Amino acid sequence: EIVMTQSPATLSVSPGERATLSCRASQSVSSNLAWYQQKPGQAPRLLIYGASTRATGIPARFSGSGSGTEFTLTISSLQSEDFAVYYCQQYNNWQTFGQGTKVEIK
Amino acid sequence: QLQLQESGPGLVKPSETLSLTCTVSGGSISSSSYYWGWIRQPPGKGLEWIGSIYYSGSTYYNPSLKSRVTISVDTSKNQFSLKLSSVTAADTAVYYCASQENYNWFDPWGQGTLVTVSS
């Protein structure tokens, strides 16, 4: 099983600042990685697939990068609606999720 | 656009079988582009993929749950279903269904349904 490790567990950021979230795979997943946003009481929402392609309707302030085992989700200027938990998911070999990074207001 | 909705009992007794159904609207479950998946999330914890099915009936299960999971599809009703047997308190979770493009990422997701395992 491919283990996905996200860091940090919690990220405290002020509105308008940049947030950088990391996701590491225990073995290469090529570019077969997705990012999701989950707000309390809601289902996850797809943000990024193919490591760097924004899903339909996702604002340009969200960007993804990386390949192999190291991936990054960047939110260029945090808006109030961006405070949430973010998960990465690999789909190169079965599918596994990271444990999540909570982005909270500083 | 695709919409998914989970349905089923919110309370299941230990050792019994959890059964949920996901109804797909806004598109056909027989689409060649999609698989259909189940994911769960214990309260306050992360996401765990349970398994996925193609409209033809081909199934893929999480190895850690495989011995207890059955996923089936009913194309006439545009539905797919989950059965999880011999449940314990550890199976208490919000269960989501989702479409899975070409067995890759999950989008969209249903709203989720909380299933509690308790006597």
Task: Describe the secondary-structure layout.
The complex is a heterodimer of chains A (106) and B (119).
Chain A: E1 4-7, E2 10-13, E3 19-25, E4 33-38, E5 45-49, E6 53-54, E7 62-67, E8 70-75, E9 85-90, E10 96-97, E11 101-105
Parallel strand pairs in A: 2-11
Antiparallel strand pairs in A: 1-3, 3-8, 4-5, 4-9, 5-6, 7-8, 9-10, 9-11
Chain B: E1 3-7, E2 11-12, E3 18-25, E4 34-41, E5 48-53, E6 59-61, E7 69-74, E8 79-84, E9 93-101, E10 106-109, E11 113-117
Parallel strand pairs in B: 2-11
Antiparallel strand pairs in B: 1-3, 3-8, 4-5, 4-9, 5-6, 7-8, 9-10, 9-11
Walkthrough of the structure:
- The complex is a heterodimer of chains A (106) and B (119).
- Chain A has 106 residues and is mostly beta strands.
- Chain A contains no helices and 11 strands.
- Chain A has strands at residues 4-7, 10-13, 19-25, 33-38, 45-49, 53-54, 62-67, 70-75, 85-90, 96-97, 101-105.
- The N and C termini of chain A lie far apart (35 Å).
- Chain B is built from no helices and 11 strands.
- Chain B has strands spanning 3-7, 11-12, 18-25, 34-41, 48-53, 59-61, 69-74, 79-84, 93-101, 106-109, 113-117.
- In chain B, strands 2, 4, 5, 6, 9, 10 and 11 form a 7-stranded mixed β-sheet that branches. In chain B, strands 1-3-8-7 form a 4-stranded antiparallel β-sheet, with no helix packed on it.
- In chain B, a hairpin with a 5-residue loop joins strand 5 and strand 6 (59-61).
- The chains are: A mainly beta (106), B mainly beta (119).
- The interface between A and B is medium-sized, with 21 and 19 residues.
